[in-house]
Amino acid sequence: MSDQNDKLKQLKTSSLDRRLSIAKASLLAGSRWAASSASSIFSSEEEKEKKRKKAMKEQADYLVAEIGKLKGSIVKIGQMMALYGEHFLPEEITQALNTLNNQTVALAWPAIKEQLVNQLGAKLDDLTIDHEPIGTASLAQVHRATRKSDGLELVLKIQYPGVAEAIDSDMSLFRNMLKLTRMVPQTREFDQWFEEVRDMMHREVDYHIEAATTRRFADRLKNDARYAVPQIIDQYSTDRVLCMTFERGVPINSPVMLSLPQERRNALGEASLEIAVREIFEWGEMQTDPNFGNYLVRLGNGDDIKDKIILLDFGAIRQFDAQLLQVARNLIKAGYEHDSNAMVNAMTGYEFFDGMPADIKPGMAKVFLLATEAFSSPINNPDIPQGVMDEQNRYDWKKSQLHSRVMQQASKSMTSRYFTIPPKEFMFISRKFIGAYTFMTVIEAKTNVRKMITPFI
After folding, report:
1. Quick count: other Cβ atoms within 10 Å of Cβ 310?
2. What b/e sequence results for 198-224 when a residue is b if at least 16 CB atoms lie within 10 Å of its CB, and e otherwise?
3. Which of 41, 231, 439, 444 is the most buried (most CB within 10 A)?
4. Among 315, 395, 377, which Cα is nearest to 140's?
5. pLDDT digits over 41-66, tens only?
6. Are 346 and 327 in contact (CB under 8 A)?
7. Residues 329, 341: Cα–Cα separation, whole Å
8. How many angstroms separate the CA atoms of 172 and 186, rounded?
């Protein structure tokens, strides 16, 4: 948490101020980039490439530092581009944008209080609110509170003033910045992703959508003791403030997690992946941000009180159409059966796959089969490494090193231009499963993934 002296007194939300800041930084970066390119005109190709990468890193770092000073929605845009832009942005730019995740300086209490007064008015007198936030992000920060009448512990997610209104202008600023610097090719795929980020931004600042989604997931999981979802408190919720019950728990990567007995870690691992499976096979919508900060674990007693996964944030929800869901289900089923022909045949009924030459699909099938290795069994998949799956079909996530093996297979099989930019919907689904896989790897779980897929096959 930032020291009080480091807190921002207010956000720079004036469109003119933000435009001038970004325009100045973009022009400077662009001129430096052009000068660097001109200076290497007589160099060898190898030397040119080395100078190009060095210059791009320097200019990307400079631009990201300038973006970070503005805070608000433009920082969130940068963070989303870092998360989803690896397939169409240069590596140097995504690396620089990733540093925005560390730039979460809080807004000082007087500015937050002013926003609360504007949003809640006299209702604010019902609450005792901690002035220090328990969480900060690019669009909002979270403060604990207590209702005076009954002592109910709450959290208030308070959106920064002006960020919702600045999204469209900030998107234009970000796009103009990339154009001015000439460091990013302006392609159709880039345009599509840019519009997707715009839509995600608008959904994320709509707290009515988040409240409704939180309630849907709470209702779906209300009878399952493995999960907890905060309760929305309408009385103190508005367009710019979301009030929920405070839920206690420890972070997923807390050292205490590894001290739990293996069976308890296994159960938590299965619960984490089962959410993603049910999102695909039952609910048709997915929480697409598998950030560890969006989850806590409430530890039980190892006996009659179960460990619970607390699902905290439903701002990044994504709904999928029936056609896409069927393709995704067929791909998972092919992985369950570990059938390469079925995997190839599953790649149909969707524009991305239908426009792909037939000779390209077997290479992609190899990657998908490896990515779904945990869904198969030693009986139908002789390629499972020795000792990774036991006689109970429990998959050892840490020992498997699955992520690195998938990346190696992808580099061998996915050399075609058709793999440069996957459909955004598949990117969301892929990231969700990678998040669940990472969850299980971090807590060193051994889980029978196959049994949770079986009811849907």
Report:
1. 17
2. bebbeebbebeebbebbeebbebbeee
3. 439
4. 315
5. 545 566 666 766 777 777 777 777 77
6. yes
7. 15
8. 14
Q: Is the dihedral of CA 355, 357, 358, 364 positive or negative?
A: negative
Count of other CB atoms within 10 angstroms of residue 442: 18
Q: Judging by DSSP bridges, how do beta strands 308-311 and 227-228 pair with one another?
A: parallel
Secondary structure class of 134 (helix, strand, coil): coil
pLDDT one-digit tens code per residue, 387-403: 999 999 999 999 999 98
162, 8 Cβ separation under 8 angstroms: no
CA 174 to mean position of chain CA atoms: 20
- Among 265, 335, 292, 264, residue whose Cα is nearest residue 438: 292
Helix then strand then coil, in percent of the chain rounded to 5, is 60, 10, 30
Angle at 228 between CA 222 and CA 234, to 5 degrees: 80
Strand (E) or helix (H) holding 327: helix 322-337
- How far CA 214 is from CA of 147, 245, 310, 311, 367, in Å, comes to 21, 12, 12, 9, 34
Phi, psi of 227 (to 5 degrees): -130, 155
Residue 417: both structure tokens together:
């231009």
CA distance 141 to 418: 40
Count Cβ neighbours within 10 Å for each residue of 105-138 and write b for 16 or more, e otherwise: bbbbbebbeebbeebbeeeeeebebeeebebbbb
The torsion region of residue 299 among left (phi > 0), alpha (psi -120 to 50) and beta comes to beta
The 3-state DSSP class for residue 150 equals coil
CA 302 to chain centre: 31
CA angle 290/291/293 to nearest 5° reads 130
**At residue 37, what is the residue type?**
S
Polymer length in residues for the chain: 457
- Please report the sign of the dihedral spanned by the C-alpha atoms of residue 349, residue 350, residue 351, residue 352: negative
Per-residue pLDDT at 4 exceeds 50: no
Two structure tokens written together for 274:
């089962």
Mean pLDDT over 423-432 rounds to 79
Secondary structure letter of residue 280 according to DSSP: I
Q: Residue 158: beta bridge partners?
A: 141, 241
* CA–CA separation, 47 and 70 (whole Å): 35
Q: Which letter, b or e, does each residue of 165-193 get, where b requires 16 or more Cβ atoms within 10 Å of its Cβ?
A: ebbebbbebbbebbebbebbeeeeebeeb
* Amino acid at residue number 220: R
